[in-house]
Amino acid sequence: MHNEMEIRFLSLSGNEGFARAAAAAFASQMDPGIEELSDIRTAVSEAVTNAIIHGYEQQTDRIVVLQMEIDNDMLTVVVKDDGCGIGDIELARKPFFTSKPELERSGMGFSVMEAFMDSVDVRSEVHVGTTVTMRKRIMHAN
Questions:
Q1: The domain made up of 2-137 is a member of CATH 3.30.565.10
Q2: Which of 9, 118, 129, 132 could staple 15 via S-S, CB 3.0–4.6 A?
Q3: 50 an active-site residue?
């Protein structure tokens, strides 16, 4: 089976829940297990939250893009922003690192994504934006 989708939404913190629900609904076509579906929801939530809080620095009038593709048993999830970008991706991927300590964030976003998905690729350019591509093989896929 092959399918793909793309949605665009404003960088409002409430849209993180919308993105999580939309991702779960799309992925459900693959007949994932409950744990797999929970993993996808959590990873999408982290990526979208990063785009809103860090990429756009909580500007509410910017666009976050969520793209998903099903290719047989492989799910690919892409979250894009055209925000401030990440100057040092390796540093940003370290557990507990945060560029916003005043927000009491744990700095575990990328670590969470990596724990729940099979692969996580981060591409970013300062003042251009960030693209996070995550892949997960669904064991229960049709």
A1: yes
A2: 9
A3: yes
Mean pLDDT across the chain: 90
CA-based nearest residue to 122, from 97, 95, 96, 85 = 85
Contacting residues for 115 by C-beta, under 8 A, at least 6 apart:
none
Catalytic residue among 105, 123, 135, 137: 105
Catalytic residue selected from 15, 36, 50, 62: 50
15 is catalytic: no
Across 121-129, average pLDDT: 96
Mean pLDDT within 44-69: 94
Residue ranges of the domains in the chain? 2-137
Q: Catalytic: which of 20, 36, 46, 62?
A: 46
Give the C-alpha separation, 65 to 95, whole Å.
Answer: 25
Q: Mean pLDDT across the stretch 41-51?
A: 95
| Single pTM value for the model | 0.90
Torsion, Cα of 80, 56, 52, 74 (10° steps):
10
Residue 139: band (very low, low, confident or very high) from pLDDT cuts 50, 70, 90: confident
Find the largest Cα–Cα distance for the chain: 45
Q: Tell me what pLDDT residue 88 has.
A: 79
